[in-house]
Design a protein that fits this description.
The structure holds 2 protein chains of 2 kinds. In chain A, about 0% of the residues lie in helices and about 50% in strands. Chain B is mainly beta. Helices cover about 0% and strands about 55% of the residues of chain B. Chain B has no helices and 11 strands. The chains are: A mainly beta, B mainly beta.
Chain lengths: ~110, ~110
């Protein structure tokens, strides 16, 4: 199965700061998906097909990448963005998740 | 609006079977794919499997001998059964209309 490695595992960002979270795959995948999860709630689809924002996701978020390297970027950190972010690949069976990146507000 | 709700026992004894129900409203399970995902303590997430609109199933190979996903279309529900559980199966279990809509999750502890 494809292993997804996220970095960093934990980070803190100040309001207005640019944030980049990386997801690296052990083999090439066609697309990457991202979820946001806040404590006590279920994961929310956040970015589909590498770069498409889910409904309601602010446009300060963006996704990019190809092959084995993908990223989620926040252009300007806001308090509501503090959460854990997971990447997911379903190009290869079985679907696999990254280990998560916990983003905190500094 | 699609809504999913998991239900089932929160405590299961080792070696027994874990059985969960996902009740779906706002969308027919005879369309799309309906899956189970779990999140372990420490945040690791695992796709367990899904049942398709036609009733066909696909399972994670790591679980293949222990897992069964079935459905009742008359009740618009689908089910997870995981056999021979151990403490390693302690997790929060989510059902989802893969991948777009998720239930709130149910925490299951395996302990004697």
């Amino acid at each position: 199965e494809i292993v997804l490695t996220q970095s960093p595992t934990t980070m803190a960002a100040s309001p207005g700061e640019k944030v980049t979270i990386t997801c690296r795959a052990s083999s090439s995948v066609s697309y990457m998906h991202w979820f946001q999860q806040k404590s006590g709630t279920s994961p929310k689809p956040w970015i589909y097909d590498t770069s498409k924002l889910a409904s309601g996701v602010p446009d300060r978020f963006s996704g990019s990448g190809s092959g084995t390297s993908y990223s989620l970027t926040i252009s300007s950190m806001e308090a509501e963005d503090a959460a854990t972010y997971y990447c997911l690949q379903r190009s290869s069976y079985p679907p696999t998740f990254g280990g998560g990146t916990k983003l905190e507000l500094k | 609006e699609v809504q999913l709700q998991e239900s089932g026992p929160g405590l299961v004894k080792p070696s027994q079977s874990l059985s969960l129900t996902c009740s779906v409203t706002g969308y027919s399970i005879t369309s799309n794919y309906w899956g189970w995902i779990r999140k372990f303590p420490g945040n690791k997430m695992e796709w367990m499997g899904y049942i398709s609109y036609s009733g066909s199933t696909s399972y994670n190979p790591s679980l293949k001998s222990r897992i069964s996903i079935t459905r009742d279309t008359s009740k618009n529900q689908f089910f997870l059964q995981l056999n021979s559980v151990t403490t390693e199966d302690t997790a929060t279990y989510y059902c989802a209309r893969w991948i777009a809509y998720w239930g709130q999750g149910v925490m299951v502890t395996v302990s004697s």
